[in-house]
Amino acid sequence: MSDKTSDPTRLSPLEAAKRNPLMLGLFLPIQSGAWSPSTAPRGTSWTFDYNARCTVMAEKLGFDLVFGLAQWMGKGGYGGEMKFREKATDPLLVTAGLAALTERILLVSTVHILYGWHPLHLAKFGATISEMSGGRWGLNMVTGYKKSEFEMFGLEQIEHDQRYVMADEFVSMMKRLWSEDENLTVDGRFWKMKDAFVAPKPAGGKCLLVNASSSGAGLAYAVRHSDLIFVTSPAGANLDAACEALPAHNRKIKEAAAAQGRDIRTLINPHVICRETEAEARAQYDAILRHQDPVAAENFYRTFTGGDQTSWKAATREQWTIGGNVHIVGTPAQVVEGFMRLKQAGCDGVQVNFYDFIPDLEFFGARVMPLMREAGLRLDAPLAAAA
User: Fold this and answer.
1) How many CA atoms lie within 13 A of 290 on its CB side?
2) pLDDT band for position 308 (50/70/90)?
3) 296 Cβ neighbours under 8 A, 6+ residues apart
4) What pLDDT score was predicted for residue 2?
5) Largest Cα–Cα distance of the chain, in whole Å?
6) Luciferase-like domain: from which residue to which, for each copy (predicted)?
7) Is the full-model pTM beyond 0.70?
8) Amino acid 384: pLDDT
9) What is the pLDDT of residues 239-254, one digit of tens each?
10) What is the pLDDT of residues 194-232, one digit of tens each?
11) pLDDT, tens digit, for every residue of 317-326?
12) Is the pLDDT of residue 354 over 80?
């Protein structure tokens, strides 16, 4: 890979992505079953090869970023005949592998930083992947909320707001390791280090920082540290309801960031089901529900609506079975209209997922993205055409 980070006139990958009126990301299916506990026919796979194909295709189509979530599941995953999400790869290692296969797209890894990590670990690993990718790596910081996950690591579950106090110290120390050019000694409340040092530094002195928060403590952390925030609809996955609730939610985040002199972009996660006709798209939606694994679907729904987090509470069991935070179902023109509505509701980008990823992504690239450019939501051309 050529060294593109030394050119002072070159925009950072994040700044290049922010030129688009609507940022566009792909939520990678690195867990078996992806987002839908359903056995309706599809080829979606958790394997690295499949996710690499999705990522390379997304880059060629002009997507700005790909993102993988992290989870820690016991045998059988969420259960049912399909053992939903039992198989899951690690997003930090997946994005490192994707660095050598891509040139432009941002690569975002989710890490549960309170599950035994030290800031020096992630500062070093992040700086390494940043160098491997030409400054394209980002960290989606999560604190964890499932008691079962903490117990896997032999830990007691930490109280909700306290998790963000700890995250603030962790990320502050990590950022100092990325930016300061001397040995660093810190005697913190939760982590300590003596004469710690990281070199090389990430491009621009830091890596992209992301998180998904809805609570007061989580948003207070996010506006101090994050460049991107993955928001969730306070009103569930119905597009009409979401677009009524999101303007106030987005406004609250951006006003809090502005009060600290920071410019933060918000992205939301639509599950997109797009076909040539609305009837075909609705038929696919119904097929996913009709073929749901009832045990897996129930466990998935109960887990995400039963924790001490504030996100996802309004989504119904049916909406969780489809997956994604907002559902956009219809023709290519209707999908673009849905994206436009989310932008008007204050979202700066969408992080899409699909049911059958590769064919759905191919159709999206051929039929939806040209309409997004016509609508003024995207200013870029596909990578191959831009060379």
Assistant:
1) 8
2) low
3) 33, 37, 77, 78, 79, 80, 81, 82, 83, 84
4) 42
5) 63
6) 24-348
7) yes
8) 43
9) 999 999 999 999 999 9
10) 999 999 999 889 999 999 988 899 999 999 999 999 999
11) 999 999 999 9
12) yes
What is the band of 11 on the pLDDT scale with cuts at 50, 70, 90?
A: confident
Into which CATH architecture does domain 13-386 fall? Alpha-Beta Barrel (3.20)
Site of tokens 């964890």: 144
pLDDT reading at 1 higher than 50: no
* Two structure tokens written together for 245: 């609730």
The two three-digit tokens of residue 203, written as one number: 């491009």
The three-state (H, E, C) secondary structure of the chain, written as one string:
CCCCCCCCCCCCHHHHHHCCCCEEEEECCCECCCCCCECCCCCCCCCHHHHHHHHHHHHHHCCCEEEECCCCCCCCCCCCCCCCCCCECCHHHHHHHHHCCCCCCEEEEEEECCCCCCHHHHHHHHHHHHHHHCCCEEEEEECCCCHHHHHHCCCCCCCHHHHHHHHHHHHHHHHHHHHCCCCEEEECCCCEEEEECCCCCCHHHCCEEEECCCCHHHHHHHHHHCCEEEECCCCCCCHHHHHHHHHHHHHHHHHHHHHCCCCCEEEECEEEEECCCHHHHHHHHHHHHHCECHHHHHHHHHHHHCCCCCCCCCCCHHHHHHCCCEEEEECHHHHHHHHHHHHHCCCCEEEEECCCHHHHHHHHHHHHHHHHHHCCCCCCCCHHHHC
Q: Per-residue pLDDT averaged across 257-274, rounded?
A: 96
**What are the tokens at 6?**
């030394």
Cα separation, 289 vs 387, in Å, equals 42
Tokens of 310: 């504030």
- Identity of the amino acid at 200: P
Q: What is the mean pLDDT of residues 175-204?
A: 97
Per domain, the residue ranges of the chain are 13-386
β-pair type (184-187, 192-196) = antiparallel
**Counting Cβ atoms within 10 Å, is residue 154 exposed (0-12), middle (13-18) or buried (19+)?**
exposed
Structure-token pair, residue 360: 């759905």
Exposed / middle / buried, residue 380 (Cβ in 10 Å: 0-12, 13-18, 19+): buried
State phi, psi for 40 to the nearest 5 degrees: -55, 145
Residue 152 amino acid letter: M
